[in-house]
Fold:
Amino acid sequence: MRAVLQRVSQAQVVVAGETVGAISQGLLVLLGVEQDDAEGDAAYLVKKTAELRLFEDDEGKMNLSVEDIGGEILVVSQFTLAADCRKGRRPGFSRAAPPEEANRLYQHYVALLRQRGVSVATGQFQAMMQVSLTNDGPVTFLLDSNKVF
Structure:
């Protein structure tokens, strides 16, 4: 499972001209689910998402997590994070989880964040979405549950 975390001052998702999810200060998370991912992958990424110190303290150092600042999280499903771009010019998506399993793990990730007390907004699974954000920093991190050392 892969997640791109972007520290934002605001972000929103629009589907068919209607805003379906929006946050102010916090994190935009683009979440990709791959074959063989399981609930443990989601739990690992939730812990990292909630606890990574990506926000500045009073001294300007990244010492605070999204939980510490009472920030919000916007989670958007992004199957293209499972793309294989090593060969040719067209990405391959054979590593992406089937839609039913991807949606189950996406919803599980969101539920685990909410269980931690984090305010979570979402995009719409399998919809064509327009995502807008103001990246604060910019600060962007890539997490991969399959590359745990």
Summary: The longest strand covers residues 130-144. DSSP finds two helices and eight strands in the chain. The mean pLDDT is 96.
